[in-house]
Amino acid sequence: MKEKRLFGTIFLTVLIFAFLNTALIVHSDQEKVEAVFQASADTYVDQENPEASYGAIEYLKVRSLVSKNARVCVFFNLSTIPPGASVLSAKLFLYLSKPPTSQRTYLCYRLNSAWDEASLTWNRKPGSSSTFAASSSVPTTPGWVVLDIREQVQKFLNGIGEHAWTNFGWEIFDSSEDSQDVQEAFFISSESGEQDKRPYLAIEFTPPKLNITGGMPFVAGEWVGLTIKRLSQDGILVTRGDRIFKQDWINIGSITVRLSTSSGTGVFSLTPGGEPVERLVIRDGETQAVVYYRDITLGNHTLSVSAEGYPSGYYVGGSLQVTVIAGNYSLEIVSISISPESPVMGDVIKVSAVVSSIGVGVGEVALYYSTDDGASWTKLMMSFSGGRYEAYIPSQNAFTRVSYYVEASDQKGNKVKTDISTVSVGLPDWVFLALAVIVVVAIIGFIGIRRIRKKR
Asked: Coil, helix or strand for 196?
């Protein structure tokens, strides 16, 4: 038992020292992306001519000779690869057109500041760093020289600010400079007409991803906060003190995230009840952002997030399966009535409704009426008075058919409405009385006329 504990202690100690002050990539089984980059800038600088620039030359030169050394500088723009990509391999290819007279070893150091191929000279070249330096054996026959620069490229693409380097490119030079006899090699540059032999960088990487999570449950009509994170699929291992941590979050650069839902009634907003949005931005220095979601359609829906601004496959989107359920509340139009029940010409028709709402406040109650059999509808807002909602339909001509219904909504946006009812506008009693008087007068007049005629 003691031997097992001792072995475990020794193993852990060795592991800690192995990772001390380093950041390593943990490979995953995620699908990889392959990308090839042509040189954005390449040139060489010559100690023999310290103020000369060679950015437009069709070749690149490496030389070892006392006080007359020459070095190659090359830069690849990797901005299309998002921060947080996990580099599986990165190889720099230079075509050796004129090899040295004897086999040499060339080193590849990363440059520490920006430069311009049109003005770069030996006296103005940036400093360089040997951290994660690459090397390659250069043969005495023409062909491709390959430099494995995965560790440096990974540093350029790390998604965590404190563990990332800025990409200024590389310088390549003879590992044994200042030779007594000239040792010189020529490579094809990006200005050469031999396009298939120009410098290039081949990278394989696992893309970063977006992750979306949300609180539960998703209740119809209620806003739910969602957290969207940008993560490295593999992450990096870092050591702090005597412990090793895996960090998979990304905080470098801004990214625009597109939001979508499979539901026809789902809405995203940056604040509960705010304006609908289809995109949000996770800003530089931030690892995540919060958005709010609301839906009124019950059932299962898929919420999706995807990154904009990168080539297809360079960023993995995320999704969240949600189930929208009914809440513990209800909205109901309990009753509806009109007064008078049999309106006549000249009557203003009062419509009253009783609305019941449990667990949520009533939002809006409206009366809709039509005098053309539903071809068009007029909306009247109903006011609350004495426990009822009321609105008034203006007086109509006799024999008009008035159709009407009531619609109510709660503060969560749910709506209910009554069936359409119809009432016909009749004639008032005075019309019938007037007609009766006219008839009586007419009869009396007729009788009077008959009597006068008989007397004659």
From this structure: helix
For 421, half-sphere exposure in the C-beta direction (CA atoms, 13 angstrom radius) is 13
What is the spatial distance between Cα 358 and Cα 139, in angstroms, rounded to a whole number? 84
Class of residue 354 by CB neighbours under 10 A (exposed 0-12, middle 13-18, buried 19+): middle
* pTM assigned to the model: 0.68
Query: What is the token pair recorded at 396?
Result: 């109509």
Burial 35-61 (b: 16+ CB within 10 A, else e): bebebebbbbbbbeeeeebbbeeeebb
Contact call for residues 76 and 189 (beta carbons, < 8 A): no
Cα distance between residue 71 and residue 68, in whole Å: 10
- Give Cα separations from 41 to 60, 92, 107, 263, 351 (angstroms): 12, 14, 19, 49, 79
DSSP string, 338-382: EESSS-BTTPPEEEEEEEEEESS-EEEEEEEEESSTTSS-EEEEP
Inter-residue contact 223 to 272 (CB < 8 Å):
yes
User: Distances from the Cα of 421 to the Cαs of 149, 194, 328, 331, 398, in angstroms?
Assistant: 79, 84, 31, 20, 18
Distance separating alpha carbons of residues 158 and 70, to the nearest angstrom: 32
Closest CA to 406 of 442, 444, 369: 369
CA distances from 33 to 86, 169, 251, 382 (A): 10, 22, 22, 61
317-373 pLDDT, tens digit per residue, is: 999 999 998 777 778 898 999 999 999 999 999 999 999 877 677 889 999 999 999
